[in-house]
Amino acid sequence: MQDSKVKNEDYLETTVPQYSDETFFEHFRVSRNVVNEISGMFQNSEYYRSKSGPYGKLLSGDQVFTYY
Fold first, then answer.
1. Pairing with 60, which of 2, 6, 12, 30 sits 20 to 30 Å away (CA)?
2. 15 belongs to a structural domain
3. Is 6 contained in some domain?
4. Is the pTM of this model over 0.85?
5. Which tens digit of pLDDT belongs to each residue from 31-56?
6. Is pLDDT at 1 greater than 60 in this prediction?
7. What gap in Å lies between CA 58 and CA 8, rounded to an integer?
8. Which backbone phi and psi does 53 adopt, to 5 degrees?
9. Domain carrying residue 43
């Protein structure tokens, strides 16, 4: 018997942008503006510019979401 894994394909690209500001805050406990600000700072950092993983570089916003 194979284990069935639930996948949320395109969650960050499709589902999250459709959230109202209130729903966004309920899910992540931080405002969309704060996430965008942190993502921008991270994207401009030397660390982000110089690193990538085995599957290439993830978008800075996607990386920020992994912490929320």
1. 6
2. no
3. no
4. no
5. 999 999 999 999 999 999 998 888 88
6. no
7. 17
8. -95, -175
9. 20-65
Distance CA 32, CA 38 (A): 10
DSSP secondary structure of 21-49? HHHHHHHHSS-HHHHHHHHHHHHTSHHHH
Residue 36 near residue 68 (C-beta atoms within 8 A):
no
Note whether residue 5 is domain-resident. no
Which residues, at least 6 apart from 43, have a Cβ–Cβ distance to it below 8 Å? 60
**What is the amino acid identity at position 16?**
V
Structural domain count, the chain = 1
Cα gap 53→57, rounded to integer Å: 6
User: What backbone phi and psi angles, to 5 degrees, belong to 52?
Assistant: -155, 155
**Is residue 9 scored above 60 in pLDDT?**
yes
Considering Cα of 17, then 18, then 23, then 26, what sign does the dihedral take?
A: negative
